[in-house]
Amino acid sequence: MGLDSAGKSTLLARLLTGQVMETSPTIGFNVGTLDLDKKTSLTVWDVGGQKSMRANWRYYLDDCKALVFVVDSSDPSRLPEAQKVLKKVLNDEKLREVPLMVLANKKDLPNSMTIREISKQLDLHSCVDRLWEVQACSALKGLGLQQAFMSVNKLIKKS
């Protein structure tokens, strides 16, 4: 999940195909299975992030094992909005003990924010009852994606 234009669809396509694909705003969702190793795979849902879609996010939380929240690290002006919607989704009862991975996408762009700045802007340190992690990545370049989802798997195992 994440705001519109954070790079969720590009990230999922890159993870699943290794390619950069032309994407358009997601209406509804995309879903795919990511094989981490011979024994482990994750079903990854990419849910539309436009304001009009966010009310539907709660319908995708059943049996959720980890929440991956994607932010555009090159756009600090949208982080207050991202913080607000992240807090709202984390307050859902279905996510009570579900770990959180924040992916600071677009780290390849000049002036992208550090993971420390993003953690602070999203107020992640207030998430005391939840395992969470922040990782920088670039869906476009494919940087950090495999590592991030290996970490997601570790968070799931720990929780």
Automatic annotation (TrEMBL):
Swiss-Prot/TrEMBL keywords: GTP-binding, Lipoprotein, Magnesium, Metal-binding, Myristate, Nucleotide-binding
Cite the PROSITE patterns for this sequence.
ARF
* Lineage: superkingdom: Eukaryota
Q: Which SMART domains match?
A: ARF, RAB, RAS, SAR
* Residues that, per the record, bind GTP: 2-9, 49, 105-108
Query: Which residues make up the binding site for Mg(2+)?
Result: 9, 26
Which Gene Ontology MF annotations are present? GTP binding; GTPase activity; metal ion binding
Q: Which SUPFAM superfamilies match?
A: P-loop containing nucleoside triphosphate hydrolases
| Purpose of the protein | May play a role in apoptosis. May act as a tumor suppressor.
Q: Which family is this sequence assigned to?
A: Belongs to the small GTPase superfamily. Arf family.
- Stated name of the protein: ADP-ribosylation factor-like protein 11
| UniProt source species | Cottoperca gobio (Frogmouth)
